[in-house]
Write a structure and sequence with these properties.
This protein is an alpha/beta fold. It folds into two domains: 56-268, Malic enzyme, N-terminal domain (Rossmann fold, 3-Layer(aba) Sandwich); 276-458, Rossmann fold (3-Layer(aba) Sandwich). It contains 24 helices and 14 strands. The strands form three sheets. Strands 8-7-6-9-10-11-14 form a seven-stranded mixed sheet, with helices on both faces. Residues 1-13 have low confidence and may be disordered.
Length: 556
């Protein structure tokens, strides 16, 4: 059970003697910088430690924006924002929430990918909690060192498959940090309720192992029993330290992602965003696309480029959506075809991973994507390969010849890994493609029309699902919650969005979107008895009451 939603947080308490003078200026949760009032400066012994002028939060935000926009690269902007988060979290979230379209690409994809690749060289202030093989037998003891005791959400990674960039080991910590910033900015989870976790079991990245500045364990990635024992100890420690905590698995490799999800999903409130979150956001995009084409879900045939966690997660969600319409799982899976590194996924293949087998169909082998498009004639082409430029002009032209309005989603992250750009998809299809991508692309002007590409960002899904699970005190996270979230998201796309080719709501509405998804997820939790908590009279009102606002407390 999660404690009642309206609870005291660190930011609500008047500071003790430990948090006066220079100490409070160095505490990012309580620090207000130049916004401390004259009365507060007297009360907190800050006289002489700050410039004399008192600035409003709006003036502080103006200063921050000026500094960010003066930087010459996105990585420099990322570093500036991280430094702001480390010294003044309230101001950081004010800036992010008020400028979400500008800031999200900086604090998350695509910039976070560059940051993770250089993490060992740009490391400044430690943030997050590290669990390594050296900590076996002591994880619960060390977890008591975490400064915030009311953790409600943990995002954990082992760094093996960071975005489309591969094994970045301990440098993958940037991903949980970024995801949790989105939980706060997009869904209002209080920053002190969030805990980023890196499970360091080594890395197979030679460049990192040979880099004297690498922060992680200097050993090859450990697998098997030692890995499983470490992960199990982490789960048990988290459950004991933070009862009812929600754990999100992020960027684990295929070898571990599917099996860890299956092993722990009924034991703890846990989900894998790469599988379930990606599945929900992509299927929601398909729901939105069908509002443009007028087609039926049962008539869609999807060709996936990439058969890892994301692709299988989308296919599973698509199958679940068809099941709602009375289509059997067997028939629904026949609407999903996969191309991976060995070509078309067919049943005659000698060996394949267990998660791929349900989607291996009886068909002659095909090694070329263009040939697969011309042979299978899909209505939708989804890229999750992490391989840039795989959707060539010939492939997009072929999709356009088959479909009046082809659905083309280039979902690989970061931007450098996208299978094609928005401009390419619209230009090669003469403006007929319905396009979405994993990372943001600018609007595209073609003739007299301007197309606004949808961003199939998981930030549309996981914050709302997490908020719904937390607010309802869910004991478990089910696949049905993600299907509910997909429908909820699609229902928030307006006619104006669809007219511009956008299959997702604008990011500026993300907090409203997340709140409504949370309401629908919580409703399911209550309906299915997945909680011990009593249903409130007004779920949405309780959600809004809980959601964090970046407003300074008064200390005098």
């Amino acid at each position: 059970m999660v404690p009642e939603t309206k609870e005291k947080s660190l930011n609500d308490h008047a500071p003790s003697e430990l948090y006066r003078g220079v100490k409070i200026l160095h505490d990012p949760v309580r620090n207000k910088g130049t916004a401390y009032t004259d009365a507060e400066r007297d009360h907190l012994k800050l006289r002489g430690l700050l410039p004399p002028r008192v600035h409003s939060p709006a003036e502080q935000e103006l200063r921050v924006l000026g500094n960010i926009r003066a930087k010459s690269t996105d990585l420099e902007r990322y570093l500036y924002l991280v430094a702001l988060q480390d010294r003044n979290e309230t101001l950081f979230y004010r800036v992010v929430m008020h400028n979400i379209e500008e800031m999200m690409p900086l604090i998350y994809t695509p910039t976070v990918g560059k940051a993770c690749q250089k993490f060992q060289h740009i490391f400044r202030t430690p943030r997050g909690f590290y669990v390594s093989l050296q900590d076996r037998g002591h994880i619960k003891e060390y977890m008591q060192n975490w400064p915030h005791k009311q953790v409600k959400i943990i995002v954990a990674t082992d760094g093996e498959r960071i975005l489309g960039l591969g094994d970045l080991g301990a440098d993958g910590m940037g991903i949980p940090i970024g995801k949790l910033a989105l939980y706060t900015a997009c869904a209002g989870i209080h920053p002190t309720h969030c805990m980023p976790v890196m499970i360091d079991v080594g890395t197979d990245n030679e460049a990192l192992l040979n880099d004297p500045l690498y922060n992680g364990l200097e050993c090859r990635r450990v697998r098997g029993d030692k890995y499983d024992e470490l992960f199990a100890e982490f789960i048990e420690a988290a459950k004991e330290m933070f009862p009812g905590v929600l754990i999100q698995l992020e960027d684990f490799g295929n070898l571990n992602a599917f099996r860890l999800l299956e092993q722990y999903r009924d034991e703890v409130c846990l989900f894998d965003d790469d599988i379930q979150g990606t599945g929900a956001v992509a299927v929601s995009g398909i729901f939105g696309a069908l509002q443009i084409t007028g087609g039926k879900l049962s008539e869609q045939k999807i060709l996936f480029l990439g058969a890892g966690e994301a692709g299988i997660g989308i296919a599973d969600t698509f199958v679940a959506a068809l099941a709602e319409q009375g289509v059997s799982a067997e028939q629904a899976r026949k609407r999903c075809w996969f191309m991976d590194s060995q070509g078309l996924l067919v049943s005659a293949r000698p060996s394949m991973a267990a998660h791929k087998k349900p989607y291996a169909h009886d068909h002659p082998r095909i090694d070329d994507l263009l040939e697969a498009v011309n042979t299978l004639k899909p209505t939708a082409l989804l890229g999750l390969s992490g391989q840039p430029a795989r959707f060539t002009k010939e492939v997009v032209v072929a999709m356009t010849a088959i479909n009046e309005r082809p659905i083309v989603f280039a979902l690989s992250n970061p931007t450098s890994k996208a299978e094609c750009t928005a401009e390419q998809a619209y230009t090669w299809s003469n403006g007929r493609a319905i396009f979405a991508s994993g990372s943001p692309f600018d609007p595209v002007k073609l003739g007299n029309q301007t197309f606004v590409p949808g961003q199939g960002n998981n930030a549309y899904i996981f914050p709302g699902v997490g908020l719904g699970a937390i607010i309802s005190g869910a004991r478990t996270v089910t696949d049905e919650m993600f299907l509910v979230a997909a429908h909820s998201l699609a229902n928030q796309v307006t006619e104006a969005d669809l007219e511009r080719g956008r299959v997702y709501p604008p990011l500026t509405d993300i907090r409203k979107v997340s709140a409504r998804i949370a309401r629908d997820v919580a409703q399911l939790v209550y309906d299915q008895g997945l909680t011990d908590k009593k249903r409130p009279d007004d779920i949405l009102a309780e959600i809004h009451e809980y959601m964090y606002q970046p407003v300074y407390p008064h200390y005098a």
